[in-house]
Amino acid sequence: MKTVTLDVRPPGESMGDFLHGWETGKSQKSAHISFATPELLWKLLTAKRWELLKALCGAGPISIREAARRVDRDVKAVHGDVTALLKAGVLDRAEGGGIVFPFEAVKVEFLLQAA
After folding, report:
1. 101 with 57: CB under 8 angstroms?
2. Which residues does 115 contact at the CB level (< 8 Å), separation at least 6?
């Protein structure tokens, strides 16, 4: 199963993983999209966008209009959410003009600890 992990960690740790992969030529076993703070993660991953990702998970390439139909929302509003998710690297553009969520599962990971 192809999984993406959305996590919160310092940019230096994310860059360290990138450099390790670059130097060894070995890719990570799963995809990671990292955010510097929990606030940035939640700014991107709103309730409506989470609902959209659930509808796209494992669906293959579809149009924005079809995505809007699946979540029963206005096409213009879904277009805005798709644009934000594309910019963050969570969604990809599909050949033929649609969008695709290229994963079958999503894992969200962050740690809240005392200051």
Report:
1. yes
2. none
